[in-house]
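Why do we bother with holo predictions? Because pocket geometry can differ from the apo form. Keep that in mind while you read this record for 3-methylquinolin-4-amine.
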Amino acid sequence: GVHVAEKEAKRDYQEVYNAIATKIRDEDEYDNYIGYGPVLVRLAWHSSGTFDRNDNSGGSFGGTYRFKKEMNDPSNKGLQNAFDFLRPIHEQFPWISSGDLYTLGGVTAVQEMMGPKIPWRSGRVDQPENTVPDNGRLPDASQGASYVRNLFDRLGFGDRETVALIGAHALGKTHYENSGYEGPWGPSPNVFTNDFFVNLLNAHWTLNTNKKGVKQWDNDQGHMMLPTDMALVKDPKYRKLVEEYAKDQDVFFRDFSKAFAKLLENNIKFPDQNKPHYFKTLDEQDL
Ligand code: HEM
Ligand SMILES: Cc1cnc2ccccc2c1N
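The structure, written out:
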């Protein structure tokens, strides 16, 4: 059922943001100098993407990613790097819940990679191991548009929100050892832009079977797209949205911010007194 967030305690969440942001800035060598930003965004998404609106199960509230059943979900391969990155932050701020930490990690990463401000509320409460949702709720990259539409409908999202959210694939890369997909990263692996949409529309894509026997789309500049990425330009309704975001990065940023905040808060009711935080970036604080 829907969880009720606990009333916000007198805590300095900007301090936690700054600790995460400083660590992202310092540890820049991870993944061939992409850094930890993208994998932190993916952890926030995967810890929230287990939500099912049909029975109000899953979602970020209980921080259940910390249990091995969820951590070992094949869809979560590679996220251990984000979990290990956040461990010393959790030791420094033991009062923060796992769910708040995983989602705050994603918000910090988006903003420090020059993405839009993401409003964030605290109050998630760790839940016990017997509340871990079943594996298999996170999306399969080999599928087409109708699968994507159904999966994001289960998460409570329409077409606009779905296309905006998948725009996060401008960040980071795929890794053979995690998902069986491989590709040198996109044009801006650690800077949040609308490049994913521009790339989708402008490059010449060919479908190949990679050395792991997995089908993926490759282009002449060495970038790749997943089948579910390509579905966004094959489906006429999705394609309209891809064109809109490729033309106007500000509209993409506005829609992404709303959808990402909603994703991180699915299945949670927040008390009115828990106002959304709009965190300052390190640059904005001259740190
Ligand atoms: C149809 C929906 C989606 C599918 C099938 C999908 C699938 C994948 C796959 C297969 C990878 C590569 C993982 C690896 O090999 O390390 C990946 C990476 C990533 N995904 Fe998605 N994803 C989806 C939606 C999203 C959404 C909604 C977000 C965030 C809002 C997101 C953020 C990321 C990021 C940031 C990475 C890069 C991680 C890294 O560089 O380590 N994805 N995704
Ligand atoms: C350019 C591009 C396309 N698709 C992706 C899917 C997952 C992760 C990264 C991606 C990426 N950089």
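The radius of gyration is 18 Å.
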